[in-house]
Amino acid sequence: MKSFEISSEQASGVPLTVRAAGAEDAGRVAAILAECFHPVEGPVGFLQPWIQASLKGELANRLRTPPAFYSCLVAMVNEHPVGTVEVAMRGLPQPWWIPSFGVRDRLAYVSNLAVSPAFRRRGVARGLLVEVEHLVRRWNQATVNLHVMEHNQGALRLYRSLGYRLERSEQEWPFFGPRKLLLEKRLGP
Ligand SMILES: CC(C)(COP(=O)(O)OP(=O)(O)OC[C@H]1O[C@@H](n2cnc3c(N)ncnc32)[C@H](O)[C@@H]1OP(=O)(O)O)[C@@H](O)C(=O)NCCC(=O)NCCS
């Protein structure tokens, strides 16, 4: 896996490498996901240790026997994992309240992009997504898709700056609540 340097001013030249995660990384990747998506400061923060343990189990399974066209990437600073992302060829996840019928089209779908708070705004997510694009091209796909909540303005700005465009807006819950945006990037030649 190719490596690159963090380029922003705040980074003080810290070298960042991006590599494919192995089963041995499951615990550290789960810790990043729990820290980013289920912070202890949140309303159910006391559940974090259980959520982290369950994430670790799920990841370990995926990483031990990865399906074809699946990868979990980790961004490392000085041998320390600071960010992660997953990408897979799969059907688009549907809102839970919309029934799905049969096999859905498979496309390159990004999930679980997360960067430890202490390492944000240094280009780590951008670096991970650039590596995702390289992978997806190798899978002979012309597009990458992902979902983002409409209120996640930081992530939206990141995706827009990389060329992702709105495909459609979806209701997370029937009739109320925040909307989920399906974004797509067309990869150039
Ligand atoms: C969203 C997230 C992955 C961004 O990671 P990051 O490493 O800080 O992002 P980068 O440094 O690569 O950001 C690149 C550009 O994206 C935009 N951006 C990223 N985070 C931003 C924020 N919080 N506010 C405004 N713009 C932001 C900026 O344009 C930034 O460039 P700049 O720093 O030169 O202004 C990180 O904040 C995170 O883990 N959030 C919690 C989990 C999450 O929401 N994941 C996405 C789910 S869809």
Structure summarized in a few sentences:
The chain contains 4 helices and 8 strands; from the N terminus they run E-E-H-H-E-E-E-H-E-H-E-E.
Describe this structure in words.
The protein is an alpha+beta fold. The protein has one domain: Aminopeptidase, CATH 3.40.630.30. The chain is 28% helix and 32% strand. The protein contains four helices and eight strands. The protein is globular. Residues 8, 36, 113-115, 120-126, 148, 152, 154-155, 157-158, 161 line the site of coenzyme A (COA). Coenzyme A (COA) is lined by residues 8, 36, 113-115, 120-126, 148, 152, 154-155, 157-158, 161.
Mind sketching the topology for me?
Blueprint: E1 3-5, E2 15-20, H1 26-37, H2 48-64, E3 70-77, E4 80-91, E5 106-115, H3 124-138, E6 143-149, H4 153-161, E7 165-171, E8 179-186
Parallel strand pairs: 5-6
Antiparallel strand pairs: 1-2, 2-3, 3-4, 4-5, 6-8, 7-8
GO molecular function: acyltransferase activity, transferring groups other than amino-acyl groups
Domain N-acetyltransferase: 16-188
Organism: Gloeobacter violaceus (strain ATCC 29082 / PCC 7421)
